[in-house]
Request: fold
Amino acid sequence: MRFYVIFLCTIIKLLIPSESLNFKPNIVIFLADDLGYGDVGVFGNNTVRTPNIDALASDGIKLTHHLAAASVCTPSRAALLTGRLPIRTGMFPDGRIVVNVFAANGVGLPTSEVTLAEIAKTADYKTALVGKWHLGLNKDYRGDMAFHPRNRGFDFYYGHILTNMKDWSNEGDRVLLSQRPNFYKEIGAVFCVGLLSLIFLVKVGLIGRGLCILLFLVMISPMVYLVFVFNNMARLNGLLYRDFELVEQPIHLETLSYRYTQESIKFLKERERDNHPFLMVVSWDHVHTALKTLKKFRGKSQHGRYGDAIEEMDSGIGDIMNALDKFGFGRNTMIYFTSDNGAHLEETGINGQSDGGSNAPFRGGKAHPAVDGGIRVPTVIRFPGVLPRGKVIEEPTQQMDMFSTIVRLIGGKVPKDRTIDGKDILPLLQFKENKSPHEFMFHYCGPHLQAVRYRPDKGKSVWKLVSELPDYKPGEDKCYGLACSCSTIIKQDPPLLYDLTSDPGERNPITYKSNPSLQKIVDKMTVAISEHKKTVGTPESRMTFFKLLWRPWFQPCCNFPSCSCSDSVYKDFVDS
Ligand SMILES: *[C@@H]1O[C@H](CO)[C@@H](O)[C@H](O)[C@H]1NC(C)=O
Reply:
């Protein structure tokens, strides 16, 4: 009898992948914006000071092969919150614009998707998002707030509804002008040609005055639209919300990170007398341009305003960690620190100085998903008592895995009616497994599958097969203009094979044509691609050029018609 009981217990133990926790852990996610792998001390940077992120690593696990699902913000964030590749949710760009560039356009994470925060709420969690959202605001009309974080599972929201842009640096930088430097000349030329033609048509008697005026209006309205948008990005998109209320427009960037830290600490303090566990996502605007910090960080780093922004973010993380300890959450809280994509190498300020970071030792950066610099992100996880301290995991993992892992940790349910690309990596994090649960991982640029990663059962190698590369400037790992696009790419035929374990910088593609064992690896990856494609079908992009355009009737505005206000909670704060 006893034998049978023990036997049964063993069987049950084997069936349950690893024991669940006997308590509901709190979860804190720190998400940086455009922070590169090489921008963090513990990932090899010896000149930027990130003592607080480094401490998370020495108290927890450093993941050296952790991948974002996309190399740009909107798709990457959608994937982290849903556990699904952007190609499945429609949150992938299909056109020249690769991220959501307007708050007022009706583009957002579909309400049919289930977010991590929504699941946490069903598992009795209190949830908060502090910081950048970038997954939509209104859906059908101004004020419906269908995509607002408060309607996507977050009980509390304080933050920037879209994304930081260099337009509000007050130094004359313009995102759109950096894409089309001759914009005003082009507009001027079109205007002159149009006007002269109209005058000519009237003179020769082909059209009358009335028609001429009508045609003139038709001609100038798109011009007025474009010039207006080009010059008002800060006011159109610099929107700070506290819950559903628009409290600041345009955003004062200098104090923004400071305020994110304060709001996070306030949320933690409120949890002290609360019986619910919590999920808090702190989504920094750093280190996206414009790089504005409090005075006490300005000019203090060795790397200009970019380094200042990293150091301010790190200091905010330190303050929040101290608050966690102070309120007694230090031990039962899992901390996950990561970045939404690689550093933006093409980003330059108005004076030509680089405003982008380092993805060393990987090749390429933001908006280059085919190479690891775009998607391999500095990541650490700390969970005292549950995860070991000071360890490194080199196995390939991805942000979407954290969706599944966290859902499991908090006792939620992973949706069963759809494909989830993330996998529970708790056994790997606890060193109960030593292999990635993924045999294959797929890397997209918009709708194009550009690369596949293969982690075989045996051996050390991680292989990558690349069928499209960005259209780099000769001799550089940078594209022309502000960013690489998914429509100007260089097809690789035959596809390039890399052994990432010996060649992480993807410098030496391996010739496999006359090598049967390598050819077998390539064949396996090719089969995996076609199997994967069958699960994806022909998805429709929610981020086409036209869907992303600014729609005036969606535009939020505080104190109409000035569209100008400041968060009164911080009106007495002096930045000294
Ligand atoms: C450290 O980060 C700065 C800022 O991105 C960068 O300029 C520098 O090259 C990095 N150093 C290393 C060793 O990667």
